[in-house]
Design a protein that fits this description.
1 helix; 46% strand; binds copper (II) ion
Length: 116
């Protein structure tokens, strides 16, 4: 049996998933020091439908939570952590660290999904 061309398969899966064919990938990377990136916290803007890849490096172990999309990921010193997000829902969402005792530290950054 002959297998379908991978490009054809990808296009079909993309259409089935409802992701626009013009969707692109955006990426951003940041260094976290003492649970902060910058003051004020930076905003990463991504058009709706795109994929966002965030790469973060931290000087301390951190548990991070992207609110709204409800994605968790952890960072360890010396190893970059990646968060991949399909930007479907419009809005401004804080990425915050979960600490012991306190539920949330101030946002490290904001992800803003904008209308295309
Ligand atoms: Cu949280």
């Amino acid at each position: 049996m002959r297998l379908p061309c991978p490009h054809w398969l990808f296009a079909t899966l993309t259409l089935l998933a409802g992701i626009p064919v013009w969707a692109a990938q955006q990426s951003a990377s940041f260094d976290v020091k003492q649970q902060r990136i910058a003051n004020p916290a930076p905003t990463v803007r991504v058009p709706q439908g795109d994929t966002l890849v965030l790469e973060l490096r931290s000087d301390a172990p951190l548990e991070l939570h992207l609110h709204g999309y409800d994605l968790m990921f952890s960072l360890k010193p010396g190893a970059p952590g990646r968060l991949q997000l399909q930007a479907r829902v419009l809005g401004r969402f804080p990425l915050a660290a979960h600490g012991k005792g306190q539920h949330h530290a101030p946002a490290l950054l904001y992800v803003e999904v904008t209308p295309r």
